[in-house]
Amino acid sequence: MASPKPRGSSFATSSRTHLRPSRVTIDDSFFTETKNTQKHKLSQKQKTLSCQFSTGGHLSPWPTYTSGQTILHNRKPCSDDYRKRAGSWQQQPLNTTKPRYLEQLENYLRKELLLLDLGTDSAQELRLQPYREIFEFFIEDFKTYKPLLSSIKNAYEVMLAHQRERIRALEPLKAKLVAVNEDCNERILAMRAEERYEISTLKKEKMNLLKLIDKKNEEKISLQSEVTKLRKNLAEEYLHYLTERDARKILIADLNELRYQREDMSLAQSPGIWGEDPVKLTLALKMTRQDLTRTQMELNTMKANFGDVVPRRDFEMQEKTNRDLQEQLDSLRDDYEEVRKEHEILLQLHMSTLKERDQFYSELQESQRTSTPRPDWTKCEDVVAGGRDRWQMLAEGKNSDQLVDVLLEEIGEGLLREKDFFPGLGYGEDIPPFLRFDGIVENKKPTKKDVVNLLKDVWKERLAEEQKEKFPNFFFNFLERRFGPGDAMAWAYTIFENIKLFRSNEVMSQFYAVLMGKRSESVYTKQKETIAQLLKEMTNVDSQNEGLLTMEQLSTVLKSTFPLKKEEKIQELMEAGGWHPNSSNADLLNYRSLFMEDEEGQSMPFVQKLWEQYMDEKDEYLQELKQELGLELRDEVTLSKIREALMNIDPSLDKQTLNSYLSQAFQLPVTEVPEEGEEEGIVIWLQTALERLHMADIRRMGPREQEPAS
To answer: What stretch or stretches form a coiled coil here (predicted)?
Structure first.
């Protein structure tokens, strides 16, 4: 007999198919197939669960048609009806059995969990599927709460999908983290292996030193035992010789006694031989025996007094042996003390080495963390115009900072070529007079050679000018005379941009410094005069006018032209000119080639070294001035103090040169520089004075007087 279906069962069965598509589909192919298979099983099992009989032979009304004890029909928790029903629930007995529908759902959940294969990667996703099905049963059977439960389910599904996407996105980071972790572990292991190797080396060295000390101690002990043995043998030999001496003396006495007895017997047997009176002989014998007794007593006294005396020869031999052994012992003691001190020094050195190693390791880690890797300058070969050969020529003898300047010049040159116009800078007071223009000006795009030749023409006309005007105004007037008023401004901007960019070019950098007021014109003119004077001196020495000088002649000319330069400075100039330590003084040098320039105005190394030495000597001169003043850069200094300090460090300064230095430092006309004793009230910051002097042509006029030796 077929049992009647509960109300709402058909609706639940038919609506499940409509609700399933709203669920979030899992991306795993395996789980998708499992889900489709279980989807069909869910539909069949749900029908089966919906048609189960209750204990009374009817279908269980749970959860759709339960009494008021189970489902509240839209009652608010705070209403009176809710309180009455709650009271009625409390009055009912506690032996209410669990609804059969709930038991069937729990059994179904338990069976589904047992059937799952939890050994795969998607085990957690599969484990959620039975719970989804149970929750769908509730959604389908609880009609009143179906919208709320569906929204809750969908919210959780969306959140789970979002979390899965985040997990997938973090998978590459996890792999990268593992790779970084392995790299760090390898580096740590390498450092530890290196440390273990160093420690083992130091331990081996320590063990070798300890073995050496033990060996020295053993040698010392053996020498001490040998000395003790020699002393014992010496005492035994002394006793042996003493006994032999006493026995010899006793034997000699016995022999003398026997000889005397034999003589007495012979005299008694033949008294007529001597023809003497027996009484007289007896008396003589008695006196002789008395002498013998006295002599024997004296001998015994001598034995008693000098029995322990060693012969001088034996004493000297033993004393020499003892002295040699003592010297050996002292030498061994000194060696032992030296080895002990060396061991202590090595221990201290070992400890300091360990500390330095730890410090260097910390500095290495810090530098590895903060420092940037050194650039690979060979990469510029493919970027710079001219390729590898030109880059090697540009990079020769330059450090990283200079290479950056060269690279910036190359890049800036390309950008400068691309510009067709320059924007005008306006008419502000901070704008140089030759750049005051409002609008755009044309980029004339000259080559570096053209710019260098133009700047040389500017210097030639400037040096030939009789009435000097300010250099920026003269520069613009020169451009107007050369190119006309219409193109003068365009050429001014073009030349300014070029000399501002190419700082490594000697002609352009010096012209830029003078044009912008960072260096006095006298610096350039004095340098040119010095070079001309040096060339003239070399020409005078070259009597044959062949353009050749020996190294000895070159050294003589340099020393006579620069009498204040030290010997090492003269050596640097000769090396810049082509002299080498293994060269002989008779080697010839083409001195005219030292003063030649390339097409871009770059001087030869000899002239560049002259300029470097001039700048270094100026810095040393100003540093001596600062030390003589004994002030900080932020302190104020008077004109009288600077005058006094200049005279102290350079006593050979004449009045005219001294006044020119003071006028440059205090920005006063030379004619208005006060005389000595009239400088009151003229004060300036020391830093400002030194900066102004650095801009001017300032150099030592004579040697500084040495203080007399005390």
So the answer is: 199-233, 315-349
**Structure token pair of residue 166:** 């985040």
What pairing do the DSSP bridges indicate for beta strands 548-550 and 636-638? unpaired
Of 569, 539, 567, the residue nearest 553 (C-alpha): 539
Task: Indicate the pTM of the whole model.
Answer: 0.47
Q: Are 668 and 683 in contact (CB under 8 A)?
A: no
Compute the distance between CA of residue 634 and CA of residue 629 in angstroms, rounded to an integer: 13
Model pLDDT for residues 586-616, shown as the tens digit of each residue: 678 888 888 888 877 788 888 888 888 889 9
What SS3 string covers 645-680?
HHHHHCCCCCHHHHHHHHHHHHCCCHHHCCCCCCCC
The Cα–Cα gap between 473 and 453 comes to 20
CA distance 587 to 548: 10
- CA–CA dist 357, 351 (Å, integer): 10
The pLDDT tens digits for 156-211 are 889 988 988 988 888 888 888 899 999 999 999 999 999 999 999 999 999 999 99
Instruction: Say if residue 63 is preceded by a cis peptide, omega within 30 of 0.
Output: yes
Segment among 45-59, 420-434, 526-540 with least mean pLDDT: 45-59
Phi, psi values for residue 518, rounded to 5°: -90, -10
What sections of 307-438 are H helices per DSSP?
Answer: 312-370, 387-395, 400-418
- Which residues pair with residue 597 across a beta bridge? 603
Instruction: Please give the residue that has the higher pLDDT: either 5 or 289.
Output: 289
**Phi and psi angles of residue 646, each rounded to the nearest 5 degrees, phi first:** -65, -40
- Residue 334 CA to chain centroid, in angstroms? 43
If phi over 0 gives left and psi between -120 and 50 gives alpha, with beta otherwise, what is residue 630? Answer: left
Which residues are CB-contacts of 413 (< 8 A; sequence separation ≥ 6)?
501, 502
Give percent of the chain above pLDDT 90: 14
How many residues in the chain? 710
